[in-house]
Amino acid sequence: MDAAELALVQMGTVESADLVADSGRLWRDAMDPDGIEPRYEDILDRQMVTVGRERNGIKNYNVKAGPTLSAALDAVFMDSMDPKVGPRFLSEDDLARAERVIEVRDGKEIELIVDPRSLERKRADILEGVLTAGLKATREGPTDMRTIGEVTAIISLKDLKSGTGFGILEGTDEVIPASVIQELVCENGFCPVVVGSKGLPLYHGTRKRYFTRAQRRAMIARDGDRCIVPGCRCRAAQTNAHHVIFSINGGPTDIDNGVLLCPAHHHALHQGAFEIKMIDGMPYIRAGVDKNDDGAWKPASRNRLVLAA
Fold first, then answer.
1. Residue 141: pLDDT over 50
2. Sheet strands (E) in 148-208
3. What is the pLDDT averaged over residues 29-36?
4. Mean pLDDT of all residues in the chain?
5. By C-alpha distance, which of 162, 130, 163 is closest to 149?
6. Average pLDDT of 84-89?
7. Contact of 166 with 151, CB cutoff 8 Å
8. Is the dihedral of CA 106, 108, 113, 114 positive or negative?
């Protein structure tokens, strides 16, 4: 506590209040004997969407977003309102009344559309457009539409591999557990950036690939059209594709290393509630309490044709 207080006071004489607050949160998490996980679970419990009654044609939705949801929403809005890409999700009526201006860039004349909508209206149209695109897409893999937004998570390679420690979601103040970033990596892939001792970027990697739609279909054929956890009734269309051996640890993006888990069980797995391993290309599962009992491994495939036989 004395070291933290001294460091923050000294920092406060030369840095902004925001940077001091960020440093204070890092000190808090470094000294917390219970670690970051319990506090993050409390944040998730307080995350909610409430729906009000419709009045005069308007229904009120109130969103209390945790770090990952708020980062995703911020990314959607900031990317879609980037003036360099022009207005997005613009209706024909709004397009008709929009002003057009000509700018010269690199010696070329470019026609730009001046968005006539208010900031609040743009956010509403963007949210509706993103939800509509999601509803039209299947959940069996990335859609063919352009990415609507990108969330940047920063974490050390050591913490990402071990699933311990914490990471930072850009655009949010609260840090999140390393296990949560592992969940994001499972479903969305990741783009490594190697930095030097002073933080300077040394290498910008390409995105590590995620499971394809065809691979997800193969996993459904192998394990059935549900989350593989016994008793779970979540359909495969609502599941995440998980690397049994994490991709960050060298696990291949192959069906022999992939299983489908609903979001709740995917989160539970990264919290250590149970384990999964592949035996002869088939998934097996056991509860964390049976960690020392090899006999506790049970087949997780729910292929109805195989079960019926």
1. no
2. 153-154, 166-169, 175-177, 193-195, 201-204
3. 78
4. 77
5. 130
6. 66
7. no
8. positive
Pick the more confident residue, 64 or 39. Answer: 64
Beta-ladder partners of 64? 48
Q: Which tokens belong to 201?
A: 């970027």
Distance CA 19, CA 7 (A): 12
Pairing verdict, β 108-114 and 99-105: antiparallel
Task: In the chain, count H helices and then E strands.
Answer: 11, 14
Exposed/middle/buried for residue 22 (C-beta within 10 Å: 0-12, 13-18, 19+): middle
Q: Dihedral angle at the C-alpha atoms of 218, 220, 223, 225, nearest 10 degrees?
A: -170
pTM for the whole structure = 0.49
Geometric angle at alpha carbon 218, from 274 and 287, rounded to 5°: 10
Look up residue 130 and give its two tokens.
């993103």
Question: What is the mean predicted confidence (pLDDT) over 212-222?
Answer: 82
82/130: higher pLDDT: 130
As a dihedral over the C-alpha atoms of residue 247, residue 38, residue 164, residue 292, rounded to 10 degrees, the angle is -80
